[in-house]
Design a protein that fits this description.
The protein is mainly alpha-helical and 310 residues long. 77% of the residues lie in helices and 3% in strands.
Length: 310
């Protein structure tokens, strides 16, 4: 048995299992989406770095969200593009687990960052006079660092539990990247502990933060409705609605993937849902923040005007 367990040193990612013509079409389409993702999030980072009016806690956190979105795309999309052109190209065991670790780290970090961003909006709207004290730069740095650290440590726990399992074949992963549930299906031992830890993480890192976000925005909505001035109410709705759109996309797709009964979502449908994480969400987030946020649109106009005058 030990001899068989040492045989699997690499995996084959089966991807989408479509014809070569469709694979080439998807390669072109996903490459375009990938470029838009990098450009869109890069523009957000550039605007925040160059415009002093955006040097606030809210946009500091938005910078971290943009970095996570870029990292998401860079972790999964290049491998997916390679496999669309060469479906039999393997990925090493170490490379597969590294991809799993990075995906989990970025997913958990985004989840925690969205909670921190909802808290930031709650303080800004419900306790504006204390905003600069509560959301000081030291607090912002601490919250961002804590999000990254907690996410990395939890992802490390998942990967450590994967490493204890023997993989003795088959070596084909029915996915376009090394997603943890798909990798677990190839293990030659009982994965009960892994499944329990994943479910517990979903409860505490998905449902828990989602409840906090909903509570924050219930309070925020109540405070917005009490605002007397139309301009102030419009600005508050503008900044909060963009964040709510991102929250809905992220938590909605995550809960469907990890907490809904698997029998209702065949593997091919799950691959499409995972595209939201690795490609569509990172591409849509900068569009949502630029189209729904007046301050970001103003910064973009100032940057374009400055370029036209120079």
């Amino acid at each position: 048995m030990e001899e068989n367990q040492t045989m699997v040193t690499e995996f084959i990612l089966l991807g989408f299992g479509l014809g070569s013509r469709i694979h080439k079409f998807l390669f072109g389409l996903f490459s375009l989406f990938y470029i838009f993702t990098l450009l869109g999030n890069g523009v957000i980072l550039g605007l925040i770095a160059l415009d002093s009016r955006l040097h606030t806690p809210m946009y500091f956190l938005l910078c971290h969200l943009a970095i996570v979105d870029i990292a998401y795309a860079c972790n999964t999309v290049p491998q997916m593009l390679v496999n669309l052109l060469n479906p039999t190209k393997p990925i090493s065991f170490a490379g597969c687990l590294t991809q799993t670790f990075l995906f989990l780290t970025f997913a958990l970090t985004e989840c925690l960052l969205l909670v921190v961003m909802s808290f930031d909006r709650y303080v800004a709207i419900c306790q504006p006079l204390r905003y600069s004290v509560i959301m000081s730069w030291r607090v912002c740095f601490t919250l961002a660092a804590t999000s990254w650290t907690c996410a990395s440590l939890l992802a490390l726990v998942h990967v450590a539990l994967l490493l204890r399992l023997p993989f003795c074949g088959p070596h084909e992963i029915n996915h376009f990247f090394c997603e943890i549930l798909s990798v677990l299906k190839l293990a030659c031992a009982d994965t009960w502990l892994n499944q329990v830890v994943i479910f517990a993480a979903c409860v505490f890192i998905l449902l828990g933060p989602l409840c906090l976000v909903l509570v924050s925005y219930t309070r925020i909505l109540s405070a917005i409705l009490r605002i007397q001035f139309g301009e102030g109410r419009r600005k508050a709705f503008s900044t909060c609605s963009s964040h709510l759109c991102v929250v809905g996309l992220f938590f909605g797709s995550a809960i469907v993937m990890y907490m809904a009964p698997k029998s209702r979502h065949p593997e091919e449908q799950q691959k499409i849902l995972f595209l939201f994480y690795s490609l569509f969400n990172p591409m849509l987030n900068p569009l949502i923040y630029s189209l729904r946020n007046t301050e970001v649109k103003g910064a973009l106009r100032r940057a374009l005007c400055k370029d036209s005058h120079s």
